[in-house]
């Protein structure tokens, strides 16, 4: 290793007419210079490799970030579309709810009319839809929404609303028909003799064959006799028009009312007539007073029912009491 301490001379001979250059370098410098150059080269290679790797990593990260941004943009777009769909569903449900409320109001109005026509006075039960939430304690088990999502629930609710709407569309005409039928029934009931013509319920002689109270012979009795006190009110058994109001030796003061549809009623032996021929009378209206005029043994009402001009037994027609006006 003695050569490391030695000095070496390098002679550079240029072209003609130029001086010769000499450089003296130690042996150690000759060894260190290549080693330093090699280290610098290796260092440069390492730096280049690290830079290249960092550049590739940065490019990959940039790609992943771009891909993630695209995915998030897509998700945001899907979320926005889902929110818009839910808003549309909620708007549709709100419109359906308003429509249901209107139809239910129509149904309730028809129900009230039917109850009024039928004389029903019952308190309706409280429905859940009429309750209002107020401040106070709350509780209960937390359950997941049916169907797994709000969208599924909205769709299911919409289907239920549509089904209810179809049912209501079917119910409304039926209720209208029922209302018309009730009105027709009420009208028919109004002109059908169904109430007692007196306050008294004391029947003294039935319809049909009986022994005549004056002669003792078997004769035909064309009505029923209802006992009472002179001056008791006599009521029209149904709406109608007075077609006869007279006084004769046999029937005494008597009144006949035409109720339409071939039905008439007659009231005999009155002490006083209030209704005259042509008067329109209402069911339960006073038309005279009970008495014993004509061929009579005592105060009573002889009551007759005519169907197409023929007397029939009044008993099946007396089914109700008179309602106070």
If you had to describe this structure to a student in words, what would you say it looks like?
Residues 83-120 form a coiled coil. This is Peptidoglycan DD-metalloendopeptidase family protein. Keywords: Coiled coil, Membrane, Transmembrane, Transmembrane helix. The chain is of the alpha+beta class and 325 residues long. It is 41% helix and 24% strand. The strands form three sheets. Strands 3, 6, 7, 8, 9, 10, 11, 12, 13 and 14 form a ten-stranded antiparallel β-sheet that branches. α1 packs parallel to α2 (150-190). 16% of the residues are buried.
Secondary-structure map with pairings?
Layout (H helix, E strand, L loop, with lengths): L6 E6 L8 E6 H92 L31 H41 L12 E3 L2 E4 L6 E4 L2 E4 L5 E3 L4 E9 L3 E9 L2 E11 L6 E2 L4 E5 L9 E8 L2 E3 L13
Antiparallel strand pairs: 1-2, 3-6, 4-5, 6-13, 7-12, 8-9, 8-11, 9-10, 10-12, 10-13, 13-14
Helix pairs in contact: 1-2
Keywords: Coiled coil, Membrane, Transmembrane, Transmembrane helix
GO molecular function: metalloendopeptidase activity
Pfam families: Peptidase_M23 (PF01551)
Query: Overall 3D geometry?
Result: rod-shaped
Give the biggest sheet: 10 strands, antiparallel
Query: Would you identify the regions where 5 or more consecutive residues have pLDDT less than 50?
Result: 122-134, 136-148
* Oligomeric assembly: single chain
SSE order: EEHHEEEEEEEEEEEE
How many beta-strand elements? 14
Evaluate the radius of gyration.
57 Å
Helical content band = 40-55%
Structural class: alpha+beta
Number of helices: 2
* Proportion in β-strands: 15-25%
Straight-line N-to-C gap: 147 Å
Overall mean pLDDT: 80
Keywords: Coiled coil, Membrane, Transmembrane, Transmembrane helix
Transmembrane segments: 28-51
Pfam families: Peptidase_M23
GO molecular function, one term: metalloendopeptidase activity
């Amino acid at each position: 290793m003695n050569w490391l301490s030695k000095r070496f001379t390098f002679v550079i001979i240029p072209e003609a007419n130029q001086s010769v250059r000499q450089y003296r370098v130690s042996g150690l410098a000759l060894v260190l210079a290549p080693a330093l150059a090699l280290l610098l080269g290796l260092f440069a290679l390492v730096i280049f490799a690290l830079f290249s790797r960092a550049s590739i990593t940065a490019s990959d990260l940039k790609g992943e970030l771009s891909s993630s941004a695209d995915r998030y943009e897509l998700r945001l777009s899907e979320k926005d579309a889902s929110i818009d769909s839910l808003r549309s569903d909620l708007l549709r449900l709100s419109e359906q709810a308003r429509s249901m409320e209107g139809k239910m109001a129509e149904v309730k109005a028809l129900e009230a009319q039917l109850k009024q026509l039928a004389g029903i006075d019952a308190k309706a039960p409280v429905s859940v839809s009429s309750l209002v939430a107020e401040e106070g304690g709350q509780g209960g088990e937390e359950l997941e929404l049916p169907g797994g999502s709000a969208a599924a629930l909205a769709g299911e609710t919409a289907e239920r609303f549509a089904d209810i709407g179809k049912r209501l569309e079917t119910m409304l005409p039926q209720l209208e028909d029922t209302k018309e039928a009730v009105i027709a029934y009420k009208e028919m009931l109004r002109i059908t003799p169904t109430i007692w013509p007196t306050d008294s319920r004391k029947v003294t002689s039935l319809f049909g064959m009986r022994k005549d109270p004056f002669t003792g012979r078997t004769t035909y009795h064309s009505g029923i006799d209802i006992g009472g006190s002179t001056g008791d009110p006599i009521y029209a058994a149904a709406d109608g028009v007075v077609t006869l109001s007279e006084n004769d030796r046999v029937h005494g003061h008597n009144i006949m009312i035409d109720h339409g549809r071939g039905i008439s009623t007659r009231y005999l032996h009155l002490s006083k007539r209030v209704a005259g021929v042509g008067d329109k009378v209402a069911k339960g209206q006073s038309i005279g007073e009970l008495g014993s005029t004509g061929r009579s043994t005592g105060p009573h009402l002889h009551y007759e029912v005519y169907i197409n001009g023929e007397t029939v037994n009044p008993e099946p027609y007396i089914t109700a009491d008179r309602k106070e006006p």
